[in-house]
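Technical appendix A lists one of the benchmark inputs used to test multi-chain prediction within the project. The record comprises two sequence entries:
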Amino acid sequence: MHLHDVWFILIAVLWTGYFFLEGFDFGVGVLTRLLARDERERRVLINTIGPVWDGNEVWLLTAGGATFAAFPDWYATLFSGFYLPLFAILVCLIVRGVAFEYRAKRDGVRWKRNWEQAIFWTSLLPAFLWGVAFADIVRGVPIDRHKEYAGGLLDLLHPYALLGGLVTLTLFTFHGAVFTALKTLGPIRERARALAGRLGLLTAVLAAAFLVWTQAGTGNARSLAALVLAVAALLGALALNRAGREGWAFTCSGLTVAAAVGMLFLALYPDVMPSTLDPAWSLTVANAASSAYTLRIMTWVAVVFTPLVLLYQGWTYWVFRRRIGVQHIPAPAHAAAVPAPAGPAGTAAPAEPAADRP
Amino acid sequence: MDLALAPETIARWQFGITTVYHFLFVPLTISLSAVTAGLETAWVRTGKEKYFHATRFWGKLFLINIAMGVVTGIVQEFQFGMNWSDYSRFVGDVFGAPLAMEALIAFFFESTFIGLWIFGWDRLPKRLHCAAIWMVSLGTVLSAYFILAANSWMQHPVGYALDPATGRARLTDIGAVLFQNTALAQFAHTLTAAFLTGAAFMVGIASYHLWRTRRLQEAGEAADPKRTLAMRTSLRVALVVAVVAGLGTAVSGDSLGKVMFRQQPMKMAAAEALWDKEAPAPFSVFAVGDVAKGHNTVAVEIPGLLSFLAHSDFRSEVPGVNDVAAAEAARYGGDPKDYLPNVPVAYWGFRWMIGFGMTSFACALAGLWLTRSRRWVAPGKRTAPDEVPRLMLTPTRELGPALTRWGWRVGILTMGFPLLANSWGWIFTETGRQPWVVFGLMRTSDAVSPGVSLAEQLTTLIGFTLLYAALAVVEVRLLATYAKAGPVTSERPPEKDPVLRGPGGPAGGDPDGEDADRPLAFAY
């Protein structure tokens, strides 16, 4: 096996890791509107991913960095070609990160409501757009002889790509609901399970249509195996969720994400970005890759550090393994900590916490 | 096409705005994580409450900052592909490697352990909790190292060969890229500057509290001695860090300057507005020049100093802007005028960097003396650790009321200076390299994405700038609210050290048998 094949696999692994992990935290973000009934429940949801969302997001940065190092042409064509969707994703990720961190840092109904709105939309939009982007990659986009993207924004919004977006959105929301059922206590856990059942059916229909469409377009024997696995895992997740086996249900919904992403990469290989203008102009693992020396260095770095990352990230999940419910949500601690802006002459009168109605 | 709307210009503005904005948060993140780690270590080792309060307080401000640093960093990583695709293709083989290492080694560290630290107060034994913030700090330092190694390669490309088939740079020696003297000097300079920045930030906020407490007391109102204690300790720690880091910034800046005189003589000649070679060359204190004609009309200079800064020899020759431009034109072709960076920006950027940086260093030095330890103050003038210190000029003489007022005010103002110095430092070093994006190998005008339209570029430029501006308002307000509120002295350290419990612990997989409903110590 060639080193650039190894790196194709590694990049597939990084994206799979990203969608597995950030998939459920996007889902939880969407559920803040679909599932939570009041402010406390929204806080329960946000806090199930509180300690881990930032680490999850680094999988994206690593996937991006690894693509830059191992396949510079892929990185250059992809990010300059999918310019505006990527811009939208970046804006969402910026606002989302700040929203998690700042939402609870001040009292005030409007402040919190605005950040909660932000969390919902900035989770929903990237969950949709990543699906669109990956469907476009697999289907192929207009790429000219200089490896430059030659299409416009509308070329990225093909029905197949839009269906891909709906699939990731529903799949991640389902994955998030299963995760919520695994991580919470009380009524919200029950509702999460019920919602997961309904979402799972919708996801199954959309995902089956999308994956079969993919298989018909660029599929091969290996991608067919992944397709079967993805569908089986999704049905398994649904059954296990119904049976109340939350841990196994989450394993299966994660496996669905992994198998679906794996299928896309299997359908893509050996291209990394096929051209719809002329197959000869497609970017492939061979013509987009870095030199053997760079790939060798990066392989060593990946071999040493990826297991380490898995180890300490896994440990973090273990530390925060406890389920949480509304009873675990503390009263806003900052109310005592932060007085209202100091009055004239800087008198530090302790302020009453602002009223915060759900 | 009009240069004002050339794709290159817009892409450069976007890169500049994103980078300068990102770098407002980065140095604070690097230094505040380390200082918070130091304070928490002091608390774990001594058990003193003041360290606990200080850790919680500075930790909170650190978190408000790192959130912004992290999210703007995402744009940093992706804008190479978005706006600079030809650059990415040309350098990816070399430049991508440190970037990927940064993500895999440093970002994971930072982001995973920050989650443990934020949410782990009641989950981790305190030693482990303290180790988590040290890991975050290590992550920030490693991240700085890798990205500076990448930037150094743009300043001084090494360890590569040009591929004859593709014309692109190909990595031949990763060691040379990671450990060249440019990278080491830039790392030392950036890291010390980061510590100066964070320390000055702490000096400013601690001064604000101490000065306010002093005024409250003068007005006959009661003050919170615990807050004064925590703030006084923080002030001392910050002053020491600022002085050491300030000294380090000067020394590392000098060695980085010497490296640059050799590797990019144009940048340094522009920094001094030295138009024609001189031996010995003077250091310019103030100059007004005519860029078109290539000479200065007004110049205030210190003779020989530039020669010394460049080569440690007061009589050595230093080439001027015109000489270097002619040499580069002879080497790379074209007109010498094509090789001029923006000389006024380089000249003033260099001066503002040094001026603001060294002003905060001088303020810290003065502060360290004025608030010095009890031993060096006459017994009658000593203050208890939980009182606001008197500003002592000599062991027996205190600054007068007006000077005391100004002393504290300057202490508060200090916090802005390094931020300005950092911004100008980056503006200087990046514009001073122009017209090159990779020095001697690739011009900035050849680096932009050919497939991205002007409208798309403008959309993201305006979009990001507005978003940054809005978030800056939110961030500064939040920071100000928390900084003014001061440490929460009613907070007590956890009574018993949390125990990490495995599946074999009480109640199987669900620990905390008796207080399973206890609220989280921290929640979003």
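Chain B is about 65% helix and 5% strand. The two ends of chain B are 50 Å apart (CA to CA). Comparable benchmark entries are summarised in Table A2.
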